[in-house]
UniProtKB/TrEMBL annotation:
Organism: Mucilaginibacter lutimaris
InterPro entries in UniProt: DUF5687
Membrane as UniProt keyword: yes
Name by which UniProt lists this protein: DUF5687 family protein
Keywords: Membrane, Transmembrane, Transmembrane helix
The keyword Membrane belongs to this UniProt entry's keyword annotation: yes
TM segment ranges: 23-49, 61-82, 103-129, 141-159, 171-191, 211-231, 281-297, 309-331, 352-371, 377-399, 419-437, 449-468
Domain of life: Bacteria
Length: 490
């Protein structure tokens, strides 16, 4: 049955309207992945030299054993962000004499076709051949190789399991990411323990007890079967991606009910975000950006100028990621919106209200950065006002110029659907505008005045929001038919 499923997917690909575009994208991605693997191979070939310079006081094998666990924690985080879920439209097979185990086995098999599974072999293989094989013999070298392959497969199925569970409950993804972040901070920030020492505890013993290779092998097999039975139990989902939830009336969100019709539109927007992959990933990524400050604020070389950039992104990343596709999220029913009784002015007000709510929550979540000083939180608040006033208006202005549709069911990893020239142009004013004001004043020693000016501009735009909504509505009226025509091109 595996060959039959594969044949059906090939036919589906070649018969698609976008076959030419898909081939071009796959060729470009294939070339980029090949170049990346060449870089990884070069890094692996010279890994012994690199480790010797990084840890001159340690034996090469000890240093190597210490970095493996750190690598696989990083690998898991990357998989959670970038690795796509293998899918197969299973409904056409459910009424046929096709065993469910065959369908699930096919999905489990295609999950192995990821360059993430090849990466650790290319990276660590040369070191094992150059250093461990001559020093410890073929038995230990094979134990290391099988252990690394097994851990790669464990990470593969663990990441897929987390992402599948997260499709049903977004908190799962946040909890998993939080655990990884805490595990990293526990070592490198708070120094509670040493991941390097924990890694050596296993791989160091593997040098003298090669039979310990059974442990990662058992972990990989166990994670495979956890995935297998989870998929089998959810086989009736269309693409094993999300379960249909019982629809709830917007009136069941009391806070939004007080805003009337605009609140109803926001409630529908919230449902759209929570029920679909790509908009939900925009929200999840916004929550992950709350840790962005830890990258910059822990580095003493980063000045206050970077806090403008970090504060803008932490309190406004959802506005940027979600707002630039303002109409694309509704592409499948955009024609219906054009002929409905919904006033576009209310549509815009709902977007502003949604962004205000999410950015307010984001600002509250950044308040623990007061650890780095009260001025840090002050800068966050200034950029919060800037985002609500100016960046929201800029993002919605460029959204009027995006005519590319988005398939809500698709994930965000390596997905450029809906991305056009307007998104590239958008990045320049978003990043440059606050610095056009901040840097000249800071250069003359008026950095506090610069913050006041940024905050006042944000407040002015918030106060005059009705004026900007009117201008955006007029702009939309001139482009609505272009937008609708673009959304009809699948």
């Amino acid at each position: 049955m595996t060959s039959t499923f594969f044949s059906h997917e090939l036919k589906s690909f070649w018969r698609s309207k976008n076959t030419g575009k898909s081939i071009a994208i796959k060729i470009v991605m294939g070339v980029l992945i090949f170049i990346l693997l060449l870089y990884v191979l070069a890094f692996g070939i010279f890994l012994d030299i690199i480790l010797g310079k990084m840890f001159p006081a340690e034996d090469l094998t000890v240093a190597f054993c210490g970095i493996i666990l750190v690598y696989f924690l990083t690998d898991l985080l990357m998989r959670m962000q970038l690795q796509e879920l293998p899918t197969l439209k299973v409904q056409p097979y459910l009424h046929l004499p096709v065993k469910r185990n065959s369908v699930v086995s096919y999905l489990a098999l295609t999950a192995l076709l990821s360059f993430f599974n090849l990466w650790p072999i290319v990276l660590f293989g040369p070191f094992i051949i150059k250093v461990i094989l001559p020093d410890s013999g073929s038995g230990v070298a094979l134990a290391f190789m099988f252990s690394i392959i097994a851990l790669a497969l464990f990470n593969n199925y663990l990441a897929l399991y987390i992402k599948r569970k997260a499709n049903l409950n977004g908190w799962i993804f946040l909890i998993a990411g939080g655990i990884l972040a805490l595990a990293t901070c526990g070592d490198y920030l708070w120094h509670w323990y040493s991941l390097k020492a924990i890694s050596y505890l296993f791989f160091g013993n593997l040098m003298v007890k090669p039979y310990l290779v059974l442990l990662p092998l058992l972990l990989a097999v166990a994670m495979y079967y956890i995935n297998f039975y989870y998929l089998k139990g959810n086989l009736y989902l269309e693409e094993l991606s999300s379960k249909k939830e019982h629809a709830k009336s917007s009136t069941e969100i009391p806070f939004l009910g007080r805003f009337g019709h605009v609140g109803d539109l926001v409630a529908n927007e919230v449902k759209l975000i929570l029920r679909n992959k790509r908009p939900r990933s925009a929200l999840i990524m916004g929550l992950f950006f709350m840790f962005y400050g830890l990258i910059f604020y822990t580095n003493p070389q980063m000045g206050e100028g970077f806090k403008i950039f970090v504060g803008m992104f932490m309190t406004g990343i959802f506005i940027i990621n979600y707002g630039q596709f303002m109409f694309s999220w509704q592409a499948s029913h955009f024609d219906g919106i054009l002929v409905s009784k919904v006033k576009f002015r209310d549509f815009l007000k709902a977007k502003y209200l949604l962004f205000t709510i999410v950015s307010t929550v984001a600002f509250i979540l950044t308040t623990p950065y007061v650890y780095f000083g009260w001025k840090t939180v002050l800068i966050h608040f200034v950029m919060y006002l800037w985002n609500l006033g100016i960046n929201t208006t800029i993002v919605l202005y460029f959204a009027n110029r995006n005519y590319k549709r988005i398939d809500l069911s698709k994930g965000a990893s390596f997905n450029w659907e809906g991305v056009g020239a307007s998104q590239l142009l958008l990045s320049f004013p978003l990043i440059a505008f606050p610095y056009v004001i901040y840097w000249p004043l800071k250069h003359f020693g008026y950095d506090n005045i610069a913050l006041v000016v940024l905050a006042l501009l944000g407040v002015v735009f918030i106060i005059t929001r009705d004026f900007w909504i009117k201008k955006l509505e007029q702009d939309f009226q001139t482009k609505r038919y272009q937008i609708a025509e673009g959304f009809r091109n699948k």
